[in-house]
Amino acid sequence: MTTIRLPGLIDIHVHMRQPGGEHKEIWETGTAAAIAGGIGTVLAMPNTSPAVVDEASLDAALGLAAAGARCDFGHYVGAGPDNAESIATLARRAAGLKMYLGQTFGDLRLDDISAWKAHLEAWPEEDVIAVHAEGSALKTIIELAESIGRSIHICHVAGADDIRRIADARERGVAVTCEAAPHHLFLDQTTDLPPGRAEVRPRLGTPEDRHALWEHLDAIDCFATDHAPHTLAEKDGDNPPPGFPGVETMLPLLLTATHRGLLDLDDIVFRLHDRPVELFGLPVDEGSWVEVDVDASFEIPMSGQSRSGWTPFAGMPVKGRVDRVAIRDELAYEYGEVVAAAGTGRDVRRKGSTKR
Ligand code: DOR
Ligand code: ZN
Ligand code: ZN
Questions:
Q1: pTM for the complete prediction?
Q2: CATH 3.30.420.40 given to domain 3-328
Q3: Which residues, at least 6 apart from 155, have a Cβ–Cβ distance to it below 8 Å?
């Protein structure tokens, strides 16, 4: 047994499904899963139903989060076709602005480049714009951000061409950051999954795509789960929605990768704590930490705390277990038991946080 204490980890990309998708996940269950996975802060995406695209929907979303969250949280707002000016007035309360430029789940997709430009120009430069874009849309948004001279963050980079494009832009000095999701790092098209369960956007890549992510680890600022819970019945049904739950399994998978020499503990802490804090201007609390037993081996079970009830990683042997989690000096998780109560999580953008 080798117990190691890491700072409270931050997952900058999760979907909590409240409101509108409560049968898939709610804040109580999604944050129980996050804590069980060693995560002390989650930043939630706005593609709920209805989507978070104005003040009333942000108020509602933050109210639901405050009532249900067992860990700390922030909430993104969504870029719509004509809310660039109005949504920018909410920047101080939001984790960031999310722009969907490609195939996704929900109705937040933006096709019109003039709307992309309006958002890049209106959103405050010091606040994050997180972009879902692949291929040609990725190329265009990087060029646009470069010409306007503002930073962008690319979500869940999955393809070899995309990570190379981002690495090249960074070498040119373009302010583009990015994240990679565990499913694109640990699964690919050769993984044995029923077709509906394998649906995710961006799609699982080839083994070459997957290896390219590992080869470009230096260009990857953050790991982020894109925790996108859908029920097993939906995944195995006629019209399977894209997305995988991920908050409970990310840290064991990454710790396993340290044993294989793919990265080290500092690489994990940098991408799940230091960089997220820096990029999003998040408060740091010495009393928020996670203890892992880096030598404990187990097999990932099919279901855990998430209401979705499944994981694409089921059956994978891992080495590295989350034993205890504390959030702001309170124990939140102890040896398999979630002890943090619903509603104890704090909004990282609330007044008094250290952001600005
Ligand atoms: O696979 C995905 N699931 N990709 C997305 O862009 C959205 C997400 C979801 O919300 O289910
Ligand atoms: Zn996305
Ligand atoms: Zn997402």
A1: 0.98
A2: no
A3: 13, 98, 130, 131, 132, 178, 179, 224, 226
